[in-house]
Amino acid sequence: MKSEIGTKLGFVGIGTMGAPMVQCLVRAGYRPLLFDINHEAAQNVAVETGLEVIDSLPNLGRACDIVILMLPHSGIVRRVCLGEGADAPGLIDGLRPGAIIVDMSSSDPMETRKLAPDLAQAGITLLDAPVSGGLRKAIAGTLSILLGGDDSAAVRRVTPILETMGTAVLTGPLASGHASKALNNYVSAAGLAAACEALIVGRRFGLNPETLVDVLNVSTGRNNSTENKLKQFVLNGAFREAGFALGLMAKDVALAKSLSNDLGLDLPCLDKVSGLWSDARVHLDKEADHTEIFSYLETLAERDGG
Known about the structure:
Blueprint: E1 9-12, H1 18-27, E2 33-35, H2 39-49, H3 57-63, E3 66-69, H4 74-82, E4 100-103, H5 109-120, E5 125-128, E6 131-132, H6 134-140, E7 143-148, H7 152-162, E8 166-172, H8 176-205, H9 209-217, H10 224-228, H11 230-234, H12 246-262, H13 268-283, H14 293-305
Parallel strand pairs: 1-2, 1-3, 3-4, 4-5, 7-8
Antiparallel strand pairs: 6-7
Helix pairs in contact: 1-6, 4-5, 8-12, 8-13, 8-14, 12-13
């Protein structure tokens, strides 16, 4: 069900995740206007859906009440929202007072807090709503959407729109969604790395890897990775079918580490996990899937353990 009749919706960032999210909106009856610096990517989705691609961020802003962002990182989010001077204007140069920007990117929560007052001066409300679930759930419209915001009316207004793409979980005030996403992915990354190391040790000892996974899944070591990644993508070597880049996982864990630093916390496990994923990002192919952390850990084990 639409949040209100006649909602003028825009979507910026028609990439790997953004494209299927737009498709979900279309299936629910929305007709978002599209913008991407990669005009061809936006045009491809427009051809499939009959949507319109807008030629500039200010023009997109002028045509919309609500704009959804699905972008690589906070720096790009800031440039899209505020522009970079007269030669590179942003959404703020077109959006009217009362408009809402929903940042569904995996952004730095501290940067989200910094961006909100700049938009508020123009009467624009910022909400954060990063997603968890990866490409398959984006296609299926079953993402977990972590929604944070200080304006309860704006939160209520966008919730039905977001729920065309998954399930909205209210996380609290502005930037709580981005903080929750970073911390969730830290825990996920730690669990995957630990599970992969267990497989490496078990195999060296002589255990059947599939049996070990079964043991984990009926015991207290069970986690998302043991249930949904080890047999499905790791043991059979189908890493890249998992659909979530190792670089993105490393970035999210680094955001969790940055958040802990900003809060003056010294957390040894987070430090170790962040370092591990950052190192893997450097040493593996830039197209590597996050499940290929197994290959990196194997390399380390063979190099250090003989």
